[in-house]
Amino acid sequence: MQTNTQPSKLETIASWVVPIAAIAAVIAWFIISPEGALGKLDAIGYAVCHRIDARSFQIDERQLPLCARCTGEFYAAGIALLFQAIVSGRRSQLPSRGVMAVLFAFFVAFGVDGSNSYLYLLKQTSGGLEQIPNLYVPNNILRLFTGSGMGIALAAFFYPVINQTLWRNLDDRPALEWKSLGGLVAIIAVLNLLILTESNIILYPLAYVSALGTLSLLVAVFGLLWIIIMKQDNTFENPRQTWLAFAAGLTLALILILGIDLVRLNFTGTWSGFPGMSG
């Protein structure tokens, strides 16, 4: 554990370079991404999701930044991380075996539905594989619920890792217990039912929450990586001290997103789903 409170020369240089790089990355994202607020969100979804129109929820016949499965996964992960930050504080231990069994069931459901849905897509687009039966006809309702279950599972494992990396003083209790898991699942289930009304009042905020949830996860991952590389793990005492690490995380996340966007755009020529894929 690092005990020296004086910043190193490298940290001093980084405190000047990282904010400038972050501003440059944000400007590049605004320039390269499509026009309009939803267009900026599309550029985030474009880096992580196939964005097939028929597998996405629609706002006035305009698809959301992410497909139904990715929408569920990333909005639920964002909500789950925020929920744990409020309820669990600096709790740093993984859930109990019973809770982990439930989270593993969410993971299995995600895998089964995703595999079945992918097989269905291959059969539609290739015209072959008819000899392989689908378990059931996939639909956006199942994509949303299995995706959101996966988002809860991701956040449940990731949140204690964040705490274990950041804080000098930790709370050794599990970050997610039965009571908090039940409350979180109930919140996500209610939100999913609201999403399925397909009301624009619900879908507009959902577009922002899902896309920004995606970005937030990437920022957190790269921020933690920065902390580990800089050998600053377990040195922070309050959130204000983490600003540089997460500015670096934002910079790296946007570079990754823009890199994938430009490669995919050059390959497909469209900000929409992969050409020739539907259903």
Oligomeric nature of the chains:
single chain
Strand content: under 5%
Give the biggest beta sheet. Answer: 2 strands, antiparallel
Structural class: mainly alpha
Shape: globular
Number of discrete helical segments = 8
End-to-end separation in angstroms reads 52 Å
Number of domains: 1
How many runs of DSSP E, i.e. beta strands?
A: 4
Rounded to an integer in angstroms, the radius of gyration calculated over CA atoms is 20 Å
List keywords for this structure.
279 residues, mainly alpha, two-stranded parallel ribbon, 66% helix, 4% strand, globular
Characterization of this structure:
- By secondary structure, this protein is mainly alpha-helical.
- The chain has one domain (17-268).
- Helix content is 66%, strand content 4%.
- The strands form two sheets. The chain has a two-stranded antiparallel sheet. Strands 3-4 form a two-stranded parallel sheet.
- A hairpin with a 2-residue loop joins strand 1 (58-59) and strand 2.
- 40% of the residues are buried.
- The mean pLDDT is 92.
Give a brief description.
With 279 residues, this protein is mainly alpha-helical.
